[in-house]
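One such shown below:

_____
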Amino acid sequence: VLTGGEELNDRKTCFPAVCLRAVSSRVKALQVDSVQRWMEDLRHMTEVECMCVLQAKHIGAEEEGGHQGELIVASALGAGGEHVVTRNNLQSLLRRALVVSTELGKMFQRLEKGRWQRVHSTAVRANCHVRSLVQEYGAARSTPPEMQKYEKSLLEKCMELTNITERYRCLHTDDEFFLKSMREAIHEILTNVSDSFSNMIDMALANEIQVLIKQVESSDSVYTISSAISNLLSLTQDGPQLCSIIAKEGAVVALFKICRQDCFSDLYAHALRTVASICCVEEGIKQLDKVDGILCLADILTEENSDEAARAEAAAVVAQITSPHHTSTQHLASFLESMHDIVTALIKLCATASCGEVFLLASAALANITFFDSMACEILLQLNAVQILLGACSDRQRVDTPYSKDQVVTILANLSVLGQTAPEVLQEKGIERLLVLLGETPSSPSPSEGAACERVQQKAAVTLARLSRDPEVARTAILLNAPARLIKLCRSPAERNNSDSVLVACLAALRRLAAGCPDGIEPADHQQLIKPRLVDSFLLCSNMEESFV
């Protein structure tokens, strides 16, 4: 099955270029002094004995110290530092949550192994961390009444878990039935603690996200809004669960309000990148559809004065919401109304892209669009898409990775279904380009790059097979020695990175060429690769070894 944006689905999941820039930013974040990193982590690694004594004690501040703390906070907020406080709260909350989740995970493992002493010590440690988290979060921000109920219930369950593990720790018995019932009782309480903790963290995160969204909606400061958007974008990188919370709290609505105000045009790209990340989940797409986000995207893409970065990020959102991986398709009904304008703007962006990332995002959006409506393919042919895309393949500034080539060959494969595509491909010397793509190899040992190269080879073979229904294309391919390249891919597993999908596509292309020009295939190859059933040729080639020495 051809897919246009597999590596693009998780913008964190969905765009390779965005994945790369996300990884780059994370690498930069990790490139800090190791002692500083250790000091930050140490703050959350507390001694159990000390915490047991201190957790219930109130640490009061002297009057002078209290005034001094108020002055520090006031000065920070006065300098536009509320976003700093929110970001710190979020980072602290996520770190604490990670520590607790790790301890609970250890408890499940030790419980299964029957290591009762370790189960109890881990329960005590988890209890301390939970209490510390609750107290620290309550000191940083007022806790909503509903969340306070969750906190109280969670603390009670943590104490129950500590008590029950302490009772069973002192028991020494080999009674299998008793041990099993004991394990089940602790497992049930531990599961309740895990679920309650997860719910409480979700509520706390929602509370912090609401603060960020309020800053986006109500602030007139570009700096404050930009910082809030940055924090939202950072949160989207932590998985789809957080993206769902962000979407449900109304972030998509707030971000599109920014994108509809000319005074915030400098923030369009930043806001749209965040929208694209949120739309990796169905809830984000639903929110986008509710606020007519597709119309806003069309306006940004078609506006001549729009910044290229904003148009590229608008293309990223289009690629995200048209991904074949999404199960919901209701939003595509409104997309079809603006499809002609969007497709026109995207192919124009491909033609004028100043760098590989811009071209990647625009071409990925086009690749996805060509899957769900044949009208898009007809529009692209009218806009000289074949010439633009094949020309881009010769431009290292625009097409510089296998990921970009994957998008180009996906579009060509979908266009090749139409009969009028073949003459244009011939005119632009596209068969030569397809043969080059059949030889695509990774430049690094990266698994994702290797997978992208396999998709390029597979789709190039599919495109060649479809185009070869035209006799002139088949003759041209024979003259360019296409069968030799296809045969090599079939017979040599290393050439296709041991990919079965590439093998099937190459066998299909080879048989299509043989049907049009049977004289172009050697008798021995015809006997093994053309004459048998496809499945027999597949089994023959998939079991071949490169060397019999």
About this structure: The longest helix spans residues 176-218. The radius of gyration is 29 Å. Residues 1-31, 48-81 have pLDDT under 50 and may be disordered. Residues 259 and 268 are 5 Å apart (CA to CA).
